[in-house]
Design goal:
Layout lengths: L4 E3 L23 E5 L6 H13 L4 E6 L4 E7 L4 E3 L14 E3 L6 E3 L9 H17 L8
Parallel strand pairs: 2-3
Antiparallel strand pairs: 1-2, 3-4, 4-5, 6-7
């Protein structure tokens, strides 16, 4: 199973084609993020959740950007347990804070600074593309 984003403490940084826990001192990802796309099925996501439960993931976050809906599960004594709300939740491992906003969920670093949102990045990319066009360059050819 390959999550969209995972955080693994206790392993060296580096490019991997895939994370194979049995080759990584059996250290499981501690934090996993899944971002839903229209092609994801409920069965697929349920299987992934069971996989993460079985292999020791501590925090599992699931976000649907089309509905701006988020859920989270945190490892209890023996299993992943659902959080009642993700709004203003602070990740025990990462220290980041989640805030349910409109039109999208917002994330904040431990120092309170906001992560750049998808919409902000998209707008930034559009401004840069327009600037390149003003300079006579085609951003699609660069």
């Amino acid at each position: 199973q390959a999550p969209d984003i995972m955080v693994v403490f206790g392993r060296p940084k580096g490019e991997r084609g895939s994370y194979r826990q049995w080759l990584e001192n059996n250290i499981s990802p501690q934090v996993v993020f899944e971002i839903l796309s229209p092609g994801n099925t409920l069965t697929e996501m349920a299987k992934k959740q069971l996989f993460y439960q079985r292999y020791g993931v501590e925090e599992y976050y699931l976000y649907d950007p089309h509905k701006n809906d988020a859920s989270a599960w945190i490892r209890g004594e023996n299993q992943l347990e659902i959080l009642e709300t993700l709004d203003n939740w602070v990740s025990p491992r990462l220290g980041i804070r989640f805030q349910l906003g409109e039109p999208e969920m917002l994330l904040f670093y431990p120092d309170g600074q906001a992560f750049t949102s998808y919409n902000q990045e998209k707008q930034r990319a559009e401004r840069l593309a327009n600037k390149l066009r003003e300079l006579g360059l085609n951003p699609d050819e660069i």
